[in-house]
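Ticket reopened. Same input as before:
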Amino acid sequence: MTTRTIIVTGAGGVGKTTISAAIAASLATRGLRTLVLTIDPAKRLADALGIRDLGDEPEPVAGQDKMWAAMLDVSASWEAIIYRYAEPDVGDRLLVNPYFRAIADRFPAAQAYAAGERMAEYIESKQYDALVIDTPPSGGGIDFYTAPARTSDLVSGKLLKWLTGSHFPGRSVLYRFTAKPMLKLADTILGGPMLSGVADFLLDLRTMYENLSARSRTMERYLRQATTVVVTTADPTPVYETKRFFHQLGGISIVPAGIVFNRALPLDWIEAASKPIRGVPDADLRARARVNLRTWAAEARRQADAASELAARYGVPMYAIGLSTPVPDDLTGLRDLVETTDLLKDLGF
Amino acid sequence: MVATRLIFVSGKGGTGKSAVAAGLAITRARGGESVLALDMAVSPGLATHLGSKRLGYKPIEVRDGLFAMSVNRAAALDEYLKLQLRVPQGAPTKQIAGVLNLLADTAPGVREIISVGKPVHETWKGTWDTVVVDAPSLGQFRSYLRAPKTIAELVSTGNVRRQARALEETLHDSAVTSIVFVTNPAELPINETVESIDIMRTESLGPRPTIVMNRLLPAGLIDPDQLDALPPGPVRDAAELQTRLEAEQAMWVEAIDAAWSLPYLRGILTPHEISLQLSDAMGPVE
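Engineering reply: fixed in the latest deploy. New output:
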């Protein structure tokens, strides 16, 4: 049994987490064992699903058969990665290294890499028919696709070569490095022991290089087999991020399967706004209803313009999801969001 | 002479923070101040809201008294080395820049300290009345504010540490620095804003943020009891949407103490028109 993976990306604040949960709930309803993984630190999936304190371990979602949810714990995932791929003594040293701690907590690519590792594990567990991944908004989503390669680069990196003069240094070269007068000067000016601390960290990470880069290649293969869906709204920033993301994905030959246009207003409001309102004797109410419809119709027009520009530019299907307020916080409401579109049908479900 | 004010505008993604930052900069400039609007993000958000083309590292005048620029890492790094670290004459500046650039990819806090350093340096110059920063969204913004501490934990001596300490002092000085969080009257923006304010306080990352409630709908346009009197179809549906949004917003407005409220501007407006209208809505600030 192979796992179908759907990666949901998009700018911050467009409703990615809600859409991810909605897709997962709909797939589970079709009888597919479905796991949704959220990477976002704001626990938004937990909000949308009404469950809190999600952890790395998938938990069954109450009220939805065959659906599980998990939230990425970046530090815990990196600990697991270190213990799996490093020699035990190196692992112990890495885990207390302040650079490792800070990088695992704060480096966006480290977060995306940990998510990719999780994705690979869930796929290899063969426990799920479908996996839905809600990506972090950092770097417009591209980080998730480039993190495996970037992490191998970091480990084999320019910095280490520069610090030590070799791609395959042993720990003893550190002494050579501290003897280089220019680097000594750099340490004096920038502050110590910054460079040596980084070098220590990279040297330890270096011992994991073979394992990490083999793993990165596997992760990249899964990423290429996955289906990417981009979520946007009509606001200028998400539209800009969507364009940038398509451009960047194009650079690595990945084409999204479609754009989910979230919080869309009905298009027939545009035409209706130019017609007189009949059958409302109360003149004041009629005037207010007219102003209201016109204002919303203008917003609908702006959305339609943004959507058709994106559709024309990229030639991918657009799936409009209506503005619902408040955002559904129950599984039926979530499922209805995507079931009103052809998204899952077009994806072959 | 009055000291320069430094105002960071952050908020959850999608709440309109670039529009508010631009509106605030325009308001200050209209009030006769000399203002620098500075974009810390990669997106052209601030530029389009100021009605300008893409911004560069060198400030350009976008309207009377209002200059705008964007932080570019390479240029910021160069300036940081020359002006802030005061790399001695004769030192191999280029190589040291190379080390620092590589460190920025690896060592935590270095990239952030260079980016957050720029608006602070502009404040130290004393040439502006106000520096308005279009800052990254909440989580990333906190990692910028945290950077001086991170550096202090990792580096025990030297110029980088000294510099980080000076930055931290300015960032924590409420007589100089203000932090504005833009939010919207809806569940997720409000929850994330409240959570961020808590973290800011617990980790003492800076002055208490001022809240701006953006995208507030006019209240009381349609009476929910009158919905049935409207014909079914778009007229009633749009009225129903309005009443539901009004009810939802009334609930969330209660959940947070906002210093200002700004209207939800709908329809075909350019980003620049939005910022000009937000500036009108702000009136004279403080």
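The mean pLDDT of chain B is 88. Chain B is about 50% helix and 15% strand. Please confirm and we'll close it.
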